[in-house]
Structures are given as C-alpha cells and as structure tokens.
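Module 6 notes. Inverse folding takes a fixed backbone as the condition and produces residue identities as the prediction. Think of it as a translation problem where the source language is geometry and the target language is the twenty amino acids. Below is one complete input and output pair. Work through it position by position during the lab.
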C-alpha cells in the first residue's frame, strides 16, 4: 500500500547538511555520530500536514513502507533562504550590561530568538538570527516503518507535535474527548484541522 496525504506513518530519518548530521530519529545513526540516545526514536506524523519540513513532507506521498529512500531538498523547501534583514548589529555595552563577553561563534538567545555572533569589531557586535541551516540544501535518508491505523496512536502523535505533552482522553462515537481545560483553547483552534487529518471530532468533555 502506498502512502497518501493524511496517512499517519511511523518514520525514521536522518538529515544531513554539508555531510554532517543535524537531526535523526535513528538510534544507529545517532550512536555513530556520538549523539545523545535518550530521546532518539521513530516519529509518528501525518503526511502532508507540515509535521516535517516541506520538502520531506512532499516526498513522502506515494512511497512504500520498509523501503529506504533519499531526497535532496532545496533551501526554499527546507529552512528557507538566508535573510540579510536577520543580521543585526548591537553596541558591545548591550552585552556587557548582561555580563556577556561576546566573541565570534557564540550562540545565545536574544530578543526571544536563537542567534550567533558573526563579528566583533571595536564597540560593535554583529549577530545572525537566521536559522543555521538557512540557505543550505539538505538531504534526508528515511524509511517509513509502517502506516499507523490505531486512532489512539494518531491522537497521541498530534498531542506530541502540537501540545508538546499528552493529556488523557477517550474515544467514543468517532469523538476524541478531553477533560483537561488547559488545552481547551487549542482544541477550539485546531479541532477542524484535526478532523480533516483523522476523521475524528475533537471536543472537550461536557462534564
């Protein structure tokens, strides 16, 4: 059976930029490159719904399970082109007031964004707010382990992606029923999208 849009799949992949791994869900690749194995595991996603970067998402449709694939993706469909407007200059006192000694290559969080210092010249510090992979073509090697058919697994994959944690729910009469008011706002915003992806109605409990 070929993978189609809105299918939920379990996928293993490894992403490369300049022949270096920048992301993986494959424990063997993670171990080979000395990465932390703690959270490395296959990912469950819905195809065609932007749960992975665009170029990989588009490549998944029409593929078979248990087959290894490779795709090279242009920067436009990966992490975007480099934006010169994302390079900004600050006075060095901006950093000294925060007890930061700026140097080339230092990565820090500034203005709620992750940034990298690319130049320190006199009293001026130039910082690049572009994603480190912006402007680069990347390659993904991947394998679709299986098509996920259990509704519970589908719901949990959506929770992992959109909520970043799991809340208790029950499935009854094609409805996914949550009780925790913490996610009511998200259910209100995303219920239609979730229904298109799963053919299930996402609701809050009336009790």
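Target side of the pair, the amino acids:
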């Amino acid at each position: 059976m070929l993978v189609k849009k809105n299918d939920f799949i379990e996928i293993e992949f490894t992403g490369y930029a300049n022949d270096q791994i920048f992301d993986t869900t494959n424990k063997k690749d993670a171990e080979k490159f000395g990465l932390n194995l703690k959270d490395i595991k296959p990912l469950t996603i819905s195809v065609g719904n932007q749960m992975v970067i665009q170029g990989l998402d588009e490549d998944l449709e029409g593929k078979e399970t248990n087959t290894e694939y490779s795709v090279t993706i242009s920067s436009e469909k990966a992490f975007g082109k480099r934006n010169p407007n994302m390079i900004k200059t600050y006075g060095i006192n901006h950093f000294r007031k925060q007890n930061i000694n700026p140097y080339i290559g230092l990565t820090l969080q500034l203005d709620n964004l992750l940034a990298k210092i690319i130049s320190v010249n006199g009293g001026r510090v130039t910082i690049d707010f572009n994603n480190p992979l912006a402007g680069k073509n990347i390659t993904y090697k991947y394998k679709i382990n299986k098509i996920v058919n259990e509704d519970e697994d589908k719901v949990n994959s959506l929770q992992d992606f959109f909520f970043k944690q799991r809340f208790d729910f029950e499935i009854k009469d094609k409805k996914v029923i949550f009780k925790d008011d913490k996610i009511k706002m998200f259910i209100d915003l995303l219920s239609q999208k979730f229904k298109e992806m799963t053919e299930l109605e996402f609701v809050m409990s009336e009790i």
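Reference fact for the lab report: The longest strand covers residues 138-148.
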